[in-house]
């Protein structure tokens, strides 16, 4: 595939501009950034899986026949959830269009098989367990009194108080946290729902108790890490030694930190993940009867329906049947 095949218009190589090659490279870079790194990775995985499936069955992966995609969806339905199937299908369609193959994901056959999969398998996403403040206390208490423990305590409290996604935690730099008397201002330069990079500033209000205070934990971590520019949270070796400041944590590492901290505290980590911090803030705020608007302000949800899905378990217990026989 040549450098300009992904561009929306064909380029005439006979154009006299001496800067044409450089412009093609710059335009190609912009096209590559149109989708998030994680999306591109998933799309590449989908395309490799589709190619392997086609090879196994003697099919042409560049065929425009929608019936071929219907069969691929049916194959995926044996192992994947509905949402993952839709993502894989989008990835395959993306690559086919890059190759100039027309794809209509609204073709009746594709729509109907997806509807049948959804009805059969359901569409309810698997919810991670919220890491609530009352569980966070023993988790923090069990962390080692070491540089690694200081990193993990700050990461957990920043994620919880900020209702941050694991990807948002992983990309934080030292320059993104502003320590103030009332707490910490965290600048999110880009997130899952802000691919255009408009940015957001999230306040972490200082707690009275130092053990659960995000500001105090961040200060303890920075005393270890140092104040130089670079990733805020850095990797550790297998024996727990911190690497130099150039090695940024991955978002998967954030999830592992949550799970290992729970395990260290003697808790069952099943059902917990990086998203448990974000869900923990929303659930705890709902339990304290904060308004949905206040919760959405901190979680940065744009959809009330999505925000409500975070606090649905709390709302379930606000039942009109409560106390009928009291």
Describe the overall structure:
- The protein has 14 helices and 3 strands.
- The protein has helices at residues 20-32, 37-56, 66-76, 82-98, 108-121, 133-141, 147-162, 166-170, 214-225, 251-264, 275-287, 292-299, 304-310, 312-316; strands spanning 177-180, 183-188, 200-205.
Topology:
Layout: H1 20-32, H2 37-56, H3 66-76, H4 82-98, H5 108-121, H6 133-141, H7 147-162, H8 166-170, E1 177-180, E2 183-188, E3 200-205, H9 214-225, H10 251-264, H11 275-287, H12 292-299, H13 304-310, H14 312-316
Helix pairs in contact: 2-4, 3-5, 7-9, 7-11, 11-12
The major beta sheet can be summarized as: 3 strands, antiparallel
Q: Point out poorly predicted stretches.
A: 1-5
Count of beta strands:
3
General form: globular
DSSP helix fraction:
40-55%
- Structural class, by secondary structure, is mainly alpha
What is the terminal separation in angstroms? 73 Å
Beta-strand fraction estimate: under 5%
**Strands side by side in the biggest sheet:** 1-2-3
In N-to-C order, the SSE pattern is: HHHHHHHHEEEHHHHHH
In short:
With 326 residues, the protein is mainly alpha-helical. 50% of the residues lie in helices and 5% in strands.
Highlighted features:
326 residues; mainly alpha; three-stranded antiparallel sheet; 50% helix
């Amino acid at each position: 595939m040549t450098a300009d095949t992904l561009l929306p218009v064909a380029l005439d190589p006979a154009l006299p501009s001496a800067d044409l090659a450089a412009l093609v490279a710059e335009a190609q870079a912009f096209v590559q950034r149109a989708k998030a790194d994680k999306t591109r990775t998933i799309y590449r995985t989908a395309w490799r899986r589709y190619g392997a499936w086609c090879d196994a069955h003697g099919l042409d992966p560049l065929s425009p026949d929608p019936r071929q995609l219907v069969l691929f969806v049916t194959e995926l339905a044996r192992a994947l959830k509905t949402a993952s199937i839709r993502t894989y299908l989008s990835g395959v369609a993306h690559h086919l269009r890059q190759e100039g193959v027309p794809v209509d994901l609204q073709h009746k056959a594709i729509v109907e098989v997806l509807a049948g999969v959804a009805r059969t398998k359901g569409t309810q996403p698997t919810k991670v367990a919220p890491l609530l403040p009352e569980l966070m206390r023993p988790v923090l208490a069990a962390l080692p009194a070491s540089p690694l423990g200081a990193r993990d305590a700050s990461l957990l409290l920043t994620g919880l108080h900020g209702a941050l996604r694991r990807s948002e935690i992983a990309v934080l730099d030292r320059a993104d946290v502003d320590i103030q008397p009332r707490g910490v201002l965290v600048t999110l330069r880009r997130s899952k729902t802000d691919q255009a990079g408009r940015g957001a500033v999230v306040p972490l209000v200082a707690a009275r108790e130092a053990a659960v205070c995000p500001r105090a934990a961040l200060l303890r971590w920075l005393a270890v890490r140092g104040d130089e520019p670079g990733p805020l949270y850095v990797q550790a070796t297998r024996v727990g030694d911190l690497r130099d400041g150039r090695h940024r944590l991955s978002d998967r590492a954030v999830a592992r930190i949550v799970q290992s901290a729970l395990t260290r505290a003697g808790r069952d980590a099943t059902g917990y993940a990086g998203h448990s911090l974000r869900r923990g803030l929303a659930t705890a705020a709902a339990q304290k009867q904060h308004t949905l608007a206040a919760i959405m302000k901190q979680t940065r949800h744009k959809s009330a329906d999505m925000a409500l899905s975070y606090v649905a378990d709390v709302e379930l217990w606000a039942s009109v049947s409560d106390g009928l026989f009291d």
